What we know:
alpha/beta
Amino acid sequence: xxxxxxxxxxxxxxxxxxxxxxxxxxxxxxxxxxxxxxxxxxxxxxxxxxxxxxxxxxxxxxxxxxxxxxxxxxxxxxxxxxxxxxxxxxxxxxxxxxxxxxxxxxxxxxxxxxxxxxxxxxxxxxxxxxxxxxxxxxxxxxxxxxxxxxxxxxxxxxxxxxxxxxxxxxxxxxxxxxxxxxxxxxxxxxxxxxxxxxxxxxxxxxxxxxxxxxxxxxxxxxxxxxxxxxxxxxxxxxxxxxxxxxxxxxxxxxxxxxxxxxxxxxxxxxxxxxxxxxxxxxxxxxxxxxxxxxxxxxxxxxxxx
Amino acid sequence: xxxxxxxxxxxxxxxxxxxxxxxxxxxxxxxxxxxxxxxxxxxxxxxxxxxxxxxxxxxxxxxxxxxxxxxxxxxxxxxxxxxxxxxxxxxxxxxxxxxxxxxxxxxxxxxxxxxxxxxxxxxxxxxxxxxxxxxxxxxxxxxxxxxxxxxxxxxxxxxxxxxxxxxxxxxxxxxxxxxxxxxxxxxxxxxxxxxxxxxxxxxxxxxxxxxxxxxxxxxxxxxxxxxxxxxxxxxxxxxxxxxxxxxxxxxxxxxxxxxxxxxxxxxxxxxxxxxxxxxxxxxxxxxxxxxxxxxxxxxxxxxxx
Lengths: 305, 305
């Protein structure tokens, strides 16, 4: 099966700790890399994850807090040093280009490639990216500033060839792509071989949703209903629920409630507050509400399904 | 003896590797922390080095290349989140405030403290900082843009009390600070006890010089003559000498020549190019020219003498 897996580059929150980098992830969809948020150090963690810069063309920024985007200038400069020529697309709520553009230009007098900024209104869901493998839709969140999650929905792949059947009907190689796409095969003597004899169903498309940063927002569950994997911020433990509400963050228990309401396949928590000496307290709290929960950790690579 | 020691936060160059962070160091002078350059991830490494943000009041930036200053926005924001109130002083060649100021302001709408920018002309040596423990003087370097090294010169400390002598002469406690400062003691009956009977010499003041980034520049040796420890960039191996010259960097062998000409106590090399799988080749090259050479490494803490 082609890749649809998540690399965690950082899963801490704004204050640095000795254990976590600020937020950044990379979703590998069939060997195309999609970066989600780009906290300080993201490019270093990207290298440590043995990912290839040349496969990274799209970066999605949830909101304009530093712990979600301060890694951009370094990454952009590195790609320039490497002599990249392909456009780099950056998707974000309104305002990113205005605040980062002058800095990027100062530090990259001669750019070998172009940055294409795609700014969106974080207040409503919109499909901000689409190719033949995947669509990316924004998920409106509630934070102290405009903020969006992202829903990555894989498109159905091609049907799988039944090797014995195509051999039996002597299907020529140049017909295989049409057959994978669902067409029947016509033999030289005019017989129609129906596609269902030659192929099996494509893999079930996979889905991944990223929700950070946000106050507890039950409406989010509607939009991420049934996804294979949900990353939801779990900045605080329940005992710090008041602080969570004040700062428009979510507790681990609330994140698990969202996962349960949405009936997701798996919950991944992260964006841990620096106040906890260990993240176990957050994981344990979530597990009580939603058993299929996992705690994100730096450099983990997690297949979405 | 009071502290005068160097913490290496990062010693790589512009391209990230799995082994090195971009450049940042912290010199601890008698428990005051002076940051030298602030590459991406400096605040994370600062925490890992178990240093205290509250003791950091002065940051010295050598030049406006990203790998020497992209850690500033994150560090500034973290200090703000922590509710810092003390001024933060940032010393740099001309231009830093203009390029970083708007970004810092956008991401820190309410600042709990003030950043005081001290910009200098990198073309000539100047004392840019002085307190009762140390002076910091710029060292003009030759790079692709205005760039300065920094010479940290400790001021002489107080003389050391000879415990048996002050007991013998029954010197009262409130006289000790004057005596440490070099004054004689007058007994109640008017006898003058010369200071040399009561004290020994203060520790010899220590010196540390930081030179990065720079083309091989023999004139630098004049200014760093006899320092206890010299950090000199050694981006390339001798075999890549042409590339070093083109990019205004130094080879490991050239760095060691500067150390030898200057007669320094010890040479510390760093700012390693990403092209080498190991830094041993650079260390070995320098050792042949200047035996007391050490290779910088992340999170090392090196007493200057």
